[in-house]
Amino acid sequence: MIVRAGIFYDGTLDAPRANVDLIVENGVVREVRDSGGACDREAACVVPGLVNAHAHLEMSGEADTVGSLALLTPGQRLLRAVENAAKALRAGVTAMRDLGGSNNIAIEVRDAINEGRIPGPRIAAAGRVLCMTGGHGWFVGREIDSPMEARKAVREERRAGADCIKLIATGGVLTKGAVPGLAQLTEDEMREACTEAHRHGMRVAAHAIGTEGINNALRAGVDSIEHGMLLNDESIALFKERGAYLVPTITAPCCILEHAEGGGQPEFVVRKAREINEHMQANLRRAFAAGVKFAGGSDAGTPFNFHDRYADEVLMLQRVAGMTPHQALHASTAVAAELIGLHRGILESGEPADFLCLDADIGRDPGALTRPVAVFKAGTQVR
Fold first, then answer.
1. What pLDDT score was predicted for residue 342?
2. Which CATH fold would you assign to the domain 50-340?
3. pLDDT of residue 38
4. 98 φ, ψ to 5°?
5. Which strand (E) or helix (H) includes residue 75?
6. Which positions ≥6 away from 271 have C-beta within 8 Å?
7. Which of 202, 254, 244, 263 is nearest to 63 (CA)?
8. Region class of 72: left (phi > 0), else alpha (psi between -120 and 50), else beta
């Protein structure tokens, strides 16, 4: 298949090229060359498939996410996850990382997709989150209260088939009684989890909103901080020293606040989102300007934050963090792919043919990402 692009972005920060032919064979990019001769289809713009480094397939954007989960059986949660995986793929998400769920559901969905039985993105799955007793996310978590329990929990998730590990370093927005600014798992507990996970080649993400928890997690050796809204100058130095990634999930609090009035969300959820939002933009802009590595991830599944709207996060990276459209695309393709470790997230010879055909150049019309004309995964058109 030969796809002719008026403007072509390969996922790197190299300047986009005009009039390019993308040659696809057996699901892989065979060649990228100057256009010429016959082609099978044309597009105003071609970009790599999007990579969502933070999603929750069992959650579907319900107003009261935790309350809704409590009413669902494991079978119903599985059906939701299958549906959300298909929605994400059709919207242009060709790879994702599921960062916490119940009953090994994301792991089983991943395997079914890999076997070709159901449609969906390539998935790296964390399984259960590791949290302190009664901590944020305990309802889909494995509670731990010592470094030794942290080590054992990593081994349990590995046995269950997890690709990566998710730690809960601070309170969160959706768990009643959990304060986002307060630390939860200790630095020693997280260090033991990181040591064990890394020994087995597993990467570690930490849910961390408050400053102390962010810095504890970075010192403990996590590979990425999820959310990170209350980071400070010490955090920025630790990010750069350790080479860790920041996945800011900007749309998560923004979606909550957009539906604050009459949205049916618990009062405590709106209140906590509002408190975080006061500091988010200034802190994220400072981190990006300082050279912290940002990877795209939306926390899809949280209130009004739908799996088929990941492109909104790419736009938020521009509006809130101060990125250009090209930088935001890079963060949401190559950088996010580098973090989750499934492929490189770029379009060059030998890489998976995961790409989107758009109706306009994102450099001129960033919103083109929200309306893909066609989506391809491994060279097969899925939209």
1. 96
2. TIM Barrel (3.20.20)
3. 97
4. -90, 120
5. helix 74-90
6. none
7. 263
8. beta
- Residue 277: how many other CB atoms lie within 10 Å: 16
Q: Which parts of the chain have pLDDT scores under 50?
A: none
- The two tokens of residue 48 are 């790599």
Residue 157: its pLDDT value, please?
98
Rounded to an integer, what distance in angstroms lies between the CA atom of residue 151 and that of residue 76?
A: 31
Tokens of 358: 């758009």
Residue given tokens 């590990």 in the structure block:
165
Residue 227 has a pLDDT of 98
Give the Å distances, CA to CA, from 359 to 21, 37, 264, 370, 382: 16, 22, 36, 10, 17
CATH number, span 2-48+346-381? 2.30.40.10
Are 48 and 346 spatial neighbours (Cβ–Cβ below 8 Å)?
Answer: yes
Tokens of 254: 């923004």
Helices 311-319 and 251-258, interaxial angle, to 10°? Answer: 100
Domain ranges of the chain: 2-48+346-381, 50-340
Answering whether pTM is above 0.90, one says yes
Q: CA angle, corner 349, sides to 343 and 354, nearest 5? A: 50
pLDDT per residue as tens digits for the range 60-79: 999 999 999 989 999 999 99
Q: Between 267-289 and 251-258, two packed helices, what is the crossing angle to 10 degrees?
A: 140
Beta-strand relationship, 50-55 and 93-98? parallel
Mean pLDDT, rounded, of the chain:
97
Angle at which helices 187-199 and 211-220 cross, to 10°: 40
